[in-house]
Amino acid sequence: MTNVRPVRLGLSLFLVSQGVFFFMLLVAFVYFQRTGIVALSRGWNVEHAAIHTVFLFLSGLTMWKAVSASRRTSLTRMWPWLFGTLALGALFLVGQGSEYLALVRQGITIGQSPLHAAFFTLVGLHAIYALAGILLLAIIPKFALARHGGPSRENLVESAALYWYFVAALWLAIFCVSYLQVLR
Amino acid sequence: MNLGWLVSSDHKRIGILYMITALIFLVVGGIEAMALRTQLALPNLKFLSPGAYNQLFTMHGTTMIFLVATPVLIGFGVYLVPLMIGANDMAFPRLTAPAMWLLVLGGVILYSSFLAGGAPDAGWFSYAPLSEKFYSSTFGLDFWAIGLLLISASSIISAVNTIVTIATLRAPGMTIRRLPLFVWMTLVNSALMLVALPALNAALVMLLADRLLQAHFFDPSHGGSATLWQHFFWIFGHPEVYILILPAFGMISEIIPVFARKPIFGYEYMAGSTIAIAFLSYGVWVHHMFAVALGTVFIAAFAASSLLIAIPTGVKVFNWTFTLMGGSIRFSTAMLFAIAFLVEFTIGGLSGVAFAIVPIDWQLTDTYFVVAHIHYVLIGGTLFSLFAGTYYWFPKMTGRMLDETLGRWNFWLVVVGFNLTFFVQHYLGLIGMPRRVYTYPDLPWWGALNITSSFGAVILTLGVALFLVNVLSSLVFGAQSKNDPWDASTLEWAAASPPAATNFGQLSPVNSRRPFWDLKYPDSGGTRE
């Protein structure tokens, strides 16, 4: 009876709950940052992380363009933007993954202090969410090209986009709270 | 019941499966409670070892909260919400069943801890650092955390499904101001779940990181904070109390008007106070932590907010009472439980207000007074309304009536047994008996009050057993139910008993808060907004 689209509303509600989940982890990070004796500094490569952040931010823009193209019912125009999003997302993930690996190689691990634990928990879980987003984007072509059945293309692309914006916005929050404090 | 039930996506079947799951865990949690009360019946008893006692009270609390009360209320919601709003199913029928099975999986994982070297034993709120690996070295707490994560994920999926169902599938004319109050409260409740459970999930993930990956979030000996666990747990835990009671309020708000033969008094205030409770429930969690040195101003602010939440709750009690006033009341078993709910829940509410007063809290925290309080709210409140709801909606779900004679025995045994068990625990707390001790010395009154409590628990168990007997025997021998045996006013009674696979054929547009009443008595008037 309403104009509300169920999938979009459902996904938005789910993302609200996930937002609260990450907010609590950020609160833990800030708590240990304020009260702990250990700070994050040695080994952190803020420049690299900033470059990866730009990749993810750009992937949000390309996703937005993909949605616009799909709204104009132009599949051929959507593909480049969609694959661009996938590529930028993968670059972010691989780049950040190598950063964490470098930290671990230097002996900086989750067990070092609660602040380190909060950092690795945040970025590790974000990476899982980002990976899920990339998989979600990767299955779009399968459904979008199917002629019958399954969710509508518009619904699918817009839902995937909503999720991807969440992943990007979440990273921005994590980057600002965790990495930028290293500069201080 | 056949195998089709296990693969069904019909909200009614899944709702009933939720209820059956909860009923099975109620029996398990009840057996655990009886073992605890047997151990406590007399001073210096050695029926259970201290370790077994710790595991049993942890499993009893966790089971009753996460595997009985939460799922049975979700089950009622999944069953009733589409019927009450005139929909044929949930918004995401293919999500309804996986959510339910996720809950079952969580319960199975929690209980398989018994086979993996010992159940969790740090209490249902698993305070750190006791829950850390150093102090709890078996796998019990890992199973606890993983089980709860799955149960929590299940609840979040159900909450999303419920909110979208109410937002998108209401019958024509069923505006938000005409929603049945059960639906209203389930809606607010689902929103609460969406934002409260993630706080628990965050805490659980951090606990698992501590236990499995050698992190030190909650370990003070390595710079972690045990207080942070308490904050995170109760930021979830206090809204959880309302998650366990709001749908119960909704049931009472449906049942009292039907058996008092009057529309609910103050519908808007009922709905509005629910929203107020939901918001306030996020600002009161520290009253669980008054014994932690947090600073006077901080504590005073939370004492004030905790006192404040009694106002919207009080509004509800007044509304139910005024609905009863001047009504031509029919004392069915459902109504008896609803009226008893009013009394018992008010007692539980008042002892709750006592805990908002900091000096009283300091005196009584971690005593049997707390145990009495939580059971008055969760049994006197939630369980009593669930009994009322079952007697009321069983005919709709099964097409058969529950036996009213057995129902009355069920009612009186539960009321007497419950009050005998838990009222005396207020006194036990006042005279200083701490909770969670596996035995106690023979101090004046301690033995007498404990044996009274244990005797009450036996009567309560008999009452609950009689309920199970009534349900099982009525399923086979119960009188056939009409579609509308109570002369009710909400849409679920317009469907067949039990409803067809697709709930409704054609529905007339909804014009008031009592759409089925309008349909039955088109000339009654006076019920429109």
Q: Which keywords apply here?
A:
heterodimer; A: 184 residues; mainly alpha; 5 helices; B: 529 residues; 16 helices
Task: Please explain how this structure is put together.
The complex is a heterodimer of chains A (184) and B (529). Chain A is mostly helical and 184 residues long. Chain A is built from five helices and no strands. Chain A is elongated and about 55 Å long. Chain B is an all-alpha fold. Chain B has 16 helices and no strands. In chain B, 56% of the residues are buried.
Quickly describe the structure:
The complex is a heterodimer of chains A (184) and B (529). Chain A contains 5 helices and no strands.
Summarize the topology.
The complex is a heterodimer of chains A (184) and B (529).
Chain A (H helix, E strand, L loop, with lengths): L5 H30 L10 H26 L3 H31 L8 H32 L7 H31 L1
Helix pairs in contact in A: 1-4, 1-5, 2-3, 2-5, 3-4, 4-5
Chain B lengths: L10 H30 L9 H35 L8 H20 L27 H29 L12 H33 L12 H18 L2 H15 L6 H14 L15 H13 L1 H15 L8 H24 L1 H7 L3 H31 L5 H27 L15 H32 L37 H6 L9
